[in-house]
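thought: user wants a sequence for this fold. calling inverse folding tool.
action: design(structure=
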C-alpha cells in the first residue's frame, strides 16, 4: 500500500523559513514533488525532483525554495526560505513516474505566512 506522509509546515512570519518532508512507502517513485493550493485557487506545482536529481521549480519560488530527496529513505524535502504571505497554502506531497506523471498524493500540510 502506497503512503505519502508529510511533516513540517506551520506558521511563520514573512521572510522566515520552513522545511517540509514527505516519506513515501510502498514503492519507489521516479518523480516526487510538492504542489500547493491556496484558498480559492487551483492546485499548482511548486517543485519536482527525479530519482537522478533533476529539478523543476515554479517561477514564483525559484531562488527561494529548494527541493531535495534521499532515495535511500524514499523521502523528499522542501526547504522554503524568504517566505511571503502569498506562499500561504496547503502543501501536498506528490509522487509518480516520469512517464505517467503524478499518481499519488499526500494529505497535505498547512503553511501560513503572516505579514
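)
observation: tool returned 115 residues.
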Amino acid at each position: 500500500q502506497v503512503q505519502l506522509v508529510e511533516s513540517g509546515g506551520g506558521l511563520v512570519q514573512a521572510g522566515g523559513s520552513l522545511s517540509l518532508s514527505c516519506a513515501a512507502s510502498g514503492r519507489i517513485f521516479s518523480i516526487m514533488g510538492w504542489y500547493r493550493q491556496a484558498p480559492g485557487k487551483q492546485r499548482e506545482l511548486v517543485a519536482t525532483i527525479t530519482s537522478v536529481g533533476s529539478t523543476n521549480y515554479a517561477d514564483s519560488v525559484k531562488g527561494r525554495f529548494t527541493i531535495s530527496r534521499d532515495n535511500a529513505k524514499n523521502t523528499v524535502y522542501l526547504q522554503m526560505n524568504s517566505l511571503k504571505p502569498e506562499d500561504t497554502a496547503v502543501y501536498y506531497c506528490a509522487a509518480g513516474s516520469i512517464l505517467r506523471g503524478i499518481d499519488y498524493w499526500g494529505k497535505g500540510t498547512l503553511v501560513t505566512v503572516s505579514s
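thought: summarizing for user.
answer: Here is the designed sequence. The CA atoms of residues 43 and 70 lie 25 Å apart.
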